[in-house]
């Protein structure tokens, strides 16, 4: 990791918002590999006999992650358990070294990434304050000046001379957080550990984070609270299996994540399972046959690929209509196959609907796919997919941006 001056930069690609200054953290092509061991050698003799010593397989916690964080942004890292968000936070903090790629940081980082990280259980709370503060870059004189404020914030004056191995998990968090926020950080990194504290302390921590936001500090935090992301973040980075699947507007990211975590496709017609031609899958990409993407900017190309299953006895030709829908199932745009439909044969096939430039929209959208008789237009079957894609428009309000002129009448 290198720490030096970085060139000025805005939010990252894919719709980051809230950029207020130069780039202070940049991750380029970051991947992190761990080795998962199935069976360890239990003795030196066994290790020599087996020659290989340890049996394991590679596990990639992060794959080709590109993220830029601008000064003054509050960014949430979200995803399911095992998605790589805590690993990414540790790589950005310099605690873990990436297997490949590069991380650059400009500014003093204070991190609270693990319960009691940096604490020595045999030392008192007082000694651990000085130890932890020194690890974060404070001198003894600076810690002397801040000590009373740290202890008061943690509400641990009655326990400060006890060994921290006798602290509860909540007391660990309170002391660790109190030290971290008193080192005057440029960048604050916080993992899900705040969930351990009681409700009153959580409110106190959030108030401190809000104070940092008003001061223009840069904040990154991992949380499973999607409401917190929507209320406090300028931007959210959503990870899935170690890859970034969304980097942009919090409202879009949280909706996409809720969909990934909890929903499944549903049939759009009671006759769906009996139909001889059925839309079974939908995917989104920048180019036909390209990798799946779910986050786009206005002006980006988009290909919606519909996977169609046809059974024996299917008609020779069908029409297919693909409707992009927004909130409350409002149709946003409609795409149809040419007049006369397309040929269809038993088996699985793909149909690409390609858009050269996405309109200036803001929101998360789904699609409804209808199969119709190409001659009469009669509906054969339909399916409304729950798979979403997001467009991060730059306009402040409204669903669609239009060019207009305001001119007083003479």
UniProtKB/TrEMBL annotation:
GO-annotated molecular function: ABC-type transporter activity; ATP binding; ATP hydrolysis activity
SUPFAM superfamilies: P-loop containing nucleoside triphosphate hydrolases
Biased composition annotated in UniProt, kind: Polar residues: 264-289
Pfam families, sorted: ABC_tran
Region (Disordered): 1-22, 264-294
Coiled coil: none
Residue ranges annotated for the ABC transporter domain, each copy included: 44-266
GO CC annotations, alphabetized: membrane
InterPro entries reported in the protein's UniProt record: AAA+_ATPase, ABC_transporter-like_ATP-bd, ABC_transpr_TagH-like, Bact_Polysacc_Export_ATP-bd, P-loop_NTPase
The keyword Chaperone is annotated on this UniProt entry: no
Similarity comment: Belongs to the ABC transporter superfamily.
Species for this entry: Frankia nepalensis
Name of the molecule in the record: ABC transporter ATP-binding protein
Keywords: ATP-binding, Nucleotide-binding, Transport
CDD domains tied to this protein: ABC_KpsT_Wzt
Superkingdom of the source species: Bacteria
């Amino acid at each position: 990791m290198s720490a030096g001056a970085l060139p000025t930069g805005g939010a990252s690609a894919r719709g980051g918002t809230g950029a207020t200054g130069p780039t202070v953290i940049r991750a380029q092509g970051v991947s992190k590999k761990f080795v998962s061991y199935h069976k360890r050698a239990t003795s030196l003799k066994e290790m020599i006999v087996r020659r290989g010593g340890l049996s394991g397989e590679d596990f990639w916690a992060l794959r080709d992650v590109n993220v830029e964080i601008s000064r003054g942004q509050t960014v949430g890292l979200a995803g399911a358990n095992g998605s790589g968000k805590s690993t990414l936070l540790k790589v950005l903090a310099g605690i873990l070294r990436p297997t490949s790629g590069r991380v650059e940081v400009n500014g003093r980082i204070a991190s609270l990434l693990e319960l009691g990280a940096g604490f020595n259980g045999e030392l008192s709370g007082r000694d651990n304050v000085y130890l932890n503060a020194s690890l974060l870059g404070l001198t003894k004189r600076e810690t002397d000046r801040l000590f009373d404020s740290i202890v008061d914030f943690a509400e641990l004056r009655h326990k400060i001379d006890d060994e921290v191995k006798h602290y509860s998990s909540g007391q660990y968090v309170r002391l660790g957080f109190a030290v971290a926020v008193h080192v005057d950080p440029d960048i604050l990194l916080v993992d899900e550990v705040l969930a351990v504290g009681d409700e009153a302390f959580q409110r106190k921590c959030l108030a401190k984070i809000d104070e940092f936001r008003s001061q223009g500090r840069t904040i990154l935090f991992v949380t499973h609270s999607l409401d917190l992301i929507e209320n406090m973040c300028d931007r959210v980075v959503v990870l899935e299996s170690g890859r970034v699947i969304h980097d942009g507007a919090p409202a879009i990211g949280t909706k996409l994540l809720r969909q990934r975590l909890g929903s499944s496709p549903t049939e759009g017609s009671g006759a769906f399972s009996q139909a001889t031609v059925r839309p079974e899958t939908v995917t989104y990409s920048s180019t036909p046959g390209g990798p799946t993407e779910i986050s786009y900017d206005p002006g980006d190309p988009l290909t919606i690929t519909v996977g169609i299953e046809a059974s024996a006895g299917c008609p020779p030709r069908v029409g297919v209509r693909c409707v992009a829908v927004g909130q409350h199932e409002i149709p946003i745009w409609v795409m149809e196959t040419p007049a006369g439909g397309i040929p269809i044969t038993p088996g699985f096939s793909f149909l690409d609907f390609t858009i050269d430039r996405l309109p200036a929209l803001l929101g998360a959208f789904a699609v409804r796919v209808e199969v119709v008789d190409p001659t009469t237009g009669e509906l054969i079957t339909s399916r409304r997919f729950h798979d979403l894609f997001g467009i991060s428009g730059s306009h402040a309000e409204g669903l669609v941006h239009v060019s207009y002129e305001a001119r007083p009448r003479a």
